[in-house]
Amino acid sequence: MRRRLLTPALLLLLCGCGPRYSDIPTFSADRRLLQLVVETPAGTNHEQRYNPTTDAFEPRRLAGLAAVVEFLPAPGNLGFIPGTSPPDAAQGQPLPALLLAESQPTGTVLEVLPIALLTLDIDGLLRPVVVTVPARPSQRILPQATDWASLQRTHPAVRPFLDLWFRNCAPQHAHRRLERRKKLPAN
Questions:
Q1: Three-class SS of residue 94?
Q2: Percentage of the chain with pLDDT > 70?
Q3: Residue 96: in which H helix or E strand, if any?
Q4: What is the mean pLDDT of residues 164-174?
Q5: What is the pLDDT of residue 76?
Q6: How do residues 93-110 score in pLDDT, each as one tens digit?
Q7: SS (H, E, C) the chain
Q8: 103-147 pLDDT tens trace
Q9: What is the CA 187 to chain-centroid distance, rounded?
Q10: CA 51 to chain centre
């Protein structure tokens, strides 16, 4: 009797396993839209990072302790674009992204529209961050913002707020936000 119960329970656990985030494609299969994986939900100070070796989300660590942003909580969902990596990044480090939307749970995969590419100067190293909004209009908190120009026109305070947040989220590093209005490829 125990074996019968164990086998269906094991099958249920195996079927309930989520995607291996490092295998998710950059673009969705059905609509060919850019995808984003949420690591740190909006509104938290506790940073999470995806570990492709363990296929788990783990707290970012500094000196062996879980890192906490000692400033305002994340202004959006922090995550990454699967299947990508910046040119100078270590192997397996995907392109970081910021999703301007309501808080999404860690591990959420969403179709997004890229609206800007920010370049952060972190201790002299330039690091890109893709700023995105949800592709689905019903998930947008800034409904008219579908590109950088419309975001600036409808919500001009977003740019200085993001600048302030990135400058202060890790004061041990020298952060400067540089804006690049380079158009991102659609596909």
A1: coil
A2: 76
A3: strand 95-99
A4: 69
A5: 92
A6: 789 999 999 999 999 999
A7: CHHHHHHHHHHHHHHCCCCCHHHCCCECCCCCCEEEEEEECCCCCECEEEECCCCEEEECEECCEECECCCCCCCCEEEEECCCCCCCCCCCCCEEEEECECCCCCCCEEEEEEEEEEEEEECCEEEEEEEEEECCHHHECCCCCCCHHHHHHHCCCHHHHHHHHHHHCCCCCCEEEEEECCCCCCC
A8: 999 999 999 999 998 888 777 778 888 999 999 999 999 888 888
A9: 19
A10: 14
Q: Six-digit token pair at 178? A: 């540089």
Q: Which residues, 6 or more positions from 127, have their beta carbon under 8 angstroms from its beta carbon?
A: 86, 96, 119, 120, 121
Give 10-23 pLDDT, tens digit per residue. Answer: 444 444 556 788 88
Token pair for 17: 């396993």
Cα Dmax for the chain: 66
- Under 8 Å between Cβ of 146 and 186: no
